Amino acid sequence: MNGPEDEALAHAAVDALIGQLALAPKPGLPDPRDLTARATRRDHRALRWSARALLPGLTAMAAAARRTGEPSARLRAELGAIGRSTEHTVGLAGGGHRGALWTLGLLVAAAALQPGTAPAETTTLARHIAAHPDRHAPRRPSRGSTVSARYGAAGARGEARAGFPHVRRALNTLTTARTQGAAEPQARLDALLTVMSTLQDTELLYRAGPMGLRHVQAAARGVLEAGGTATGPGALALRALDTDLVSRAWSPRGSAPLLAGALFLDALGARDSVDVRLRRGARPDPTHPHPKLSP
Listed GO molecular functions (predicted)? Predict the structure, then answer.
């Protein structure tokens, strides 16, 4: 049976995904500027709608982890079955979000196993879950796994089995950018670019090959080295990167789910901080950039 905390984790994850979708300008990725999908071929309104279809599945994943109580092969199999059912539901709602379901599903399950832990512990638990094979998964290879095998890229599975290093890097960038005075959208864009600068994105490898991937990685690093999106030179470099990717029809789709994962863990940390302050008798800060996530 699903509990209120399971539902709260699922809502936090979907809110993080929708927060990622709302961010603009995201180079080569769907954002609110592209409502009719002329540039990225993905209708932004449809993606926001279908993101909500993840809620029941993510809630069930959290409940499964809470019942199981450990990152076992049994839990991995149950998460796989829930994930396949959720993919079907999301497809009926408009599709998309397969990578987000993989990333957020593992992180939600890990957060349910040990509530209130730091992001590093949560990603470690997710790594332990992902280490188990899903014995009931379809035998046909996915495009991502085929590209991973061809180029030796880690892919989504490798990212999870490594403990989501790019999620952790994005979190570090969020903290640093905020400390340096960046507005929240700019901090999140810098976090996205941090992921893009080093991720072996299988979608880019498929569309653009290794040379194209290195081109995008270098351009993302260039934005950060120019000072980040909160600076004039960084903002200009971001616009140039966006124009370049749209003109080439290249989309760094692997980076977006990892940013959503970072925003999810960031929101959980904000909630835990609020809860600690409330237990100490302090009032919540209404100017805090994250919502309080409660059942």
Answer: ATP binding; glycosyltransferase activity; triphosphoribosyl-dephospho-CoA synthase activity
pTM of the model: 0.89
pLDDT mean across residues, the chain? 89
Say how far apart CA 122 and CA 235 lie, in whole Å.
33
Largest CA distance in the chain: 56
Question: Is the bond preceding 25 in cis, omega lying within 30 degrees of 0?
Answer: yes
Amino acid letter for position 274: V
CA angle 243, 249, 253 (to 5 degrees): 95
Q: What is the dihedral of CA 117, 119, 123, 126, to 10 degrees?
A: 40
Residues 117/151, Cβ–Cβ less than 8 Å? no
Query: What is the chain's length?
Result: 295
**CATH (domain of 106):** 1.10.4200.10
| Band of pLDDT at residue 39, cut at 50, 70 and 90 | very low
Which amino acid, 108?
Answer: V
Could you tell me the residue range of the domain that residue 158 belongs to?
Answer: 4-134+150-279
Structure token pair of residue 265:
């863990």
